[in-house]
Structures are given as C-alpha cells and as structure tokens.
Design a protein that fits this description.
54% of the residues lie in helices and 19% in strands. The chain is α+β, with helices and mostly antiparallel strands. It has three domains: 106 residues, Beta-Lactamase, CATH 3.30.450; 106 residues; 151 residues, Histidine kinase-like ATPase, C-terminal domain (Heat Shock Protein 90, 2-Layer Sandwich). It has a five-stranded antiparallel beta sheet. Helix 5 runs antiparallel to helix 7, helix 5 packs across helix 8 and helix 9 runs antiparallel to helix 10. It binds adenosine-5'-diphosphate and magnesium ion. Magnesium ion binds next to helix 9.
C-alpha cells in the first residue's frame, strides 16, 4: 500500500508537511514537559526528605494541624512521646492527643487563631501511655499562598526534663545553702568558744576568791562556836580569857570582816561579768540602737585578751566616748574578729603590739585595729574578705571572720577596709549617731 495518499486526496503535500511538523513539535513539547515533571518530582521528593529529616530530628514536639483541627504531620519526637507511629496519628483531632485542661486550651487557641492569627503560648499535657507529660506549647497560624488561614503549627517543649534539671539544681542549691549556714554556724561557734574561754578565765579569779573567803569563814565559825559553848556552860572568866587568846579570836574577828568583804567583792565581780555577758546576748537580736563604740570596742578587746593565752595587751587611742548607731552585739563581734585575727597574726612576732584607734572622720566613726605582725601579703589583699579564704591550718581558721564582718559592716551602712601596713591594719567605718 502506498504510504502517501493518492493525488485525489483533499490534502496537498504541503498540508501533510505542516501536520508532520506540528506532530513533531507536540512530541518534543511532551518530552520536555515530562522531563520538567520528573525534575520537579525529584525536587519535591528532596523537599519531602528534608522535611521528614527535620521532623525526625527535632527534639521538641511538632504537629502540623489542618483547618479542621486534624493532624496532618507530626515530628518523630511527638510520635515517640505518644509511643505511636506518625502515620497512625495523622487525621486524628489534635485536641484528642492532649489531656483535659491543655486540650481545652488548645481547642480555644485554635479557634482564636482562625480569627486573630496571633501566636498563643501555654502549658499542656500530652497524653502518653505513661501518663500525662507536661509541655510548653506554642501554637502559630499557617497561612496559604493567598494569605488565608490554612491551619496551625504546634510546637511543644517537653517540660519533664527541664523540671527534672530544675529540681536537681534546686536540690544542689539547697545543699549549698545548708553547707554555708553550717559553716557560718561553725564560725559563730568558734567566736562563742573564744568568748567562753575568756569568760571562764575571767570568772575563775573572783570565784576562787569567794571560795577562799568562805573557807576562812567556816574555820572562824568553828572557833567562835567552841568559845560560845564555853560561855554558855558558865566557864570562869579566866578560862574564857585564855581560850580567847588560844583561839586568836581578837585577830580572827578582824579577818572575819575581811573574808566577808572578800566574798562580797568576788561576788560583785562575778555579777559584773554576767552583766557584761547579758549586754552582749541582749544585742543578739541585731536591733539598731545608739551606743558607745568606745565601750563596745573595749569590752570586745577585753574578752579576746582574756580568752587568748598570748598575753598581748590591746592598746587604745581615741576619745573616751563616740556615739554611733547600730547593733552593738554585731559590732562587738566584728571587733572581736579583728582582734582575734591580730592575735593570730602576732604569733611569732617579737615585741607584739596591737592598738585599737577610734576617731571621727568624714562624718563617720572610724575604728581601726592594727598590729605589728607580718601584715597581709600584697598578693592576698584582694582575697582576705572572700568567704572561706584562710591561711590558717584546718581546724583553726574558717575564713569566714572577715567575710561576715564586712557583711555586717555593710548592713550598717558602713564598710570594712584593709588599710596599708606595716603590719595588719583593718578599719571599720560606721555611721555616727543621728546620721541618716
Ligand atoms: N591582722 C592580720 N594580719 C595578717 N593577716 C591577716 C590579718 N587578719 C586577717 N588576715 C588574713 O586574712 C585571712 C582571713 O581572715 P578571716 O576571714 O578572719 O578568717 P580566718 O581567721 O578564719 O582565717 C586570714 O587567714 C589571714 O590570712
Ligand atoms: Mg578570723
């Protein structure tokens, strides 16, 4: 059969040529279209793989929600949390995957998002087979190309881990605070110990005085009893005279009143010491009152002197009285700390000396405690006020004395300075009475 139509065909050769060209072109276009389609398919698949990998690896949970509130996509982390397959969650109402209150909030937030498109942030609980898991939810609107509401994206940060980390942090913080207050207690006990050593030493003298006097009184009472027994028995006058001489009653009568005076002096001394102590402990409340800094400093120095075996006398230079405002018990503690540090520093110093100077300068009261010991080395000057900084052997220093003292000074609206030497020289600055 002839390929070309017969000459009586309605188509001319030219017409056939046109048709063939058109077919060729269409075919070429089809091929190109097909290729473009495949390219785009490949691009789509790559995008899909990219999105899947993102959804797989985010640790926060992520849910893409459709206009109708049904799940369209979930991150692997969300499926894992719910111990499910991503595919099994698609199509379910997103609110059904959260617990009570959270689900309610989620429903409301989705409604609001449709109208306002404002991102919402709230806490909810995912419904997992192991029970509710708290998450911090952020719900944002997803818009179509035309800017219309197309659904929402929910991201959630699981709070379980955060809460656990927070609880652990809280626990170690609490432990730290306990250790710290334990150490502060230790430092307080150490100052109390020093104080008690001073008190014991101080009480020892008058008490032995009282004791010796009472002992003498007992002896004299025995002698007088013997004499009065003879008087009552009606002994002759001559016998009584010689008995008086034998018992040395005349002299013992004088000694008797001396012993009584001695006992009373001793008892009064004990009373004074107790009064001193009372004053100290009454100030433990830390109440701010006007008081005499000179008196408090001298009492403090006296207590440390008595408690230490160094035999160092603390000298004083300054006015007889200087009124300041503060908690006298706390200020006394500062002075005791400074004097004790000075005594420690003077160990091994020949001809040790320590002086407390009090003056009024720049509208403040200034109290300095200086010693002629080795002083604080240049390299340590910045550290001495740090809590727990000590150069003393374990058991002898807590490193809290200066830290606590400087804190107390600041609470008083004052400051504790380390002055340039020679020797150790610390200066406490306090507001004067009446200063605001
Ligand atoms: N007067 C001083 N002379 C020399 N060094 C001092 C003096 N006072 C304090 N220091 C130094 O400051 C450190 C910290 O003192 P402190 O806070 O009272 O703690 P601690 O007395 O328990 O060591 C001391 O260990 C010491 O090295
Ligand atoms: Mg100290």
């Amino acid at each position: 059969m002839p390929i070309l139509p017969a000459t009586d065909s309605p188509f001319s050769d030219d017409a056939w040529g046109d048709v063939l060209t058109a077919v060729d072109r269409t075919y070429a276009e089809l091929v190109e279209y097909q290729e473009r389609l495949e390219r785009q398919n490949e691009e789509l698949r790559a995008a899909r793989r990219f999105i899947d990998s993102v959804l797989d690896s985010v640790s926060d949970v992520m849910v893409v929600v459709g206009r109708d509130g049904a799940v369209e996509e979930v991150s692997a982390s969300f499926a894992r949390a719910l111990q499910s397959e991503p595919g099994a969650l698609v199509g379910r109402a997103v609110t059904a995957l959260f617990e009570g209150d959270g689900a309610l909030r989620l429903g409301q937030a989705l409604e609001a998002l449709r109208l306002s498109r404002e991102t919402a942030r709230f806490e909810g609980e995912m419904m997992t087979p192991e029970g509710p898991q708290p998450v911090e939810i952020v719900l944002a609107a997803r818009l179509s190309d035309g800017g219309r509401y197309a659904g929402a994206v929910l991201t959630g940060r699981p709070l379980g881990e955060l809460r656990k980390a927070y609880a652990e942090l809280e626990a170690s913080h609490r432990q730290l605070k306990e250790t710290q207050s334990q150490l502060v207690r230790n430092e307080k006990l150490a100052s109390l110990g020093r104080l008690l050593a001073g008190v014991a030493h101080e009480l020892n003298n008058p008490i032995s005085f009282v004791y010796a006097s009472v002992h003498a009184l007992e002896k004299y009472v025995g002698q007088f009893e013997t004499y009065f027994e003879r008087v009552q028995a009606g002994a002759p006058r001559q016998e009584l005279i010689s008995l008086r001489e034998e018992l040395k009653l005349e002299r013992n009568l004088r000694n008797l009143s001396q012993a009584i005076t001695g006992a009373r002096d001793g008892a009064e001394r004990v009373r004074d010491i107790v009064a001193d102590l009372r004053r100290l402990s009454a100030d433990g409340t830390g109440e701010r009152v006007p008081f005499d800094l000179v008196e408090v400093a001298q009492v403090a120095a006296r207590w440390v002197e008595r408690g230490s075996k160094s035999g160092i006398d603390v000298g004083y230079e300054g006015p007889d009285s200087l009124r300041v405002t503060g908690a006298p018990g706390h200020v006394q503690q500062i002075v005791m700390n400074l004097v004790q540090n000075g005594m420690d520093a003077l160990r091994g110093t020949e001809a040790p000396q320590m002086t407390i100077r009090i003056a009024q300068r720049d509208g403040k009261a200034q109290l300095s405690v200086c010693d002629n010991g080795p002083g604080v080395p240049e390299a340590l000057r910045a550290s001495v006020f740090d809590p727990f900084f000590t150069t003393k052997p374990v058991g002898q220093g807590t490193g809290l004395g200066l830290a606590i003292s400087s804190k107390i000074a600041e609470e008083h609206g004052g400051r504790l300075h380390l002055d340039p030497g020679p020797g150790g020289c610390f200066r406490l600055e306090l507001p004067l009475e009446g200063a605001s």
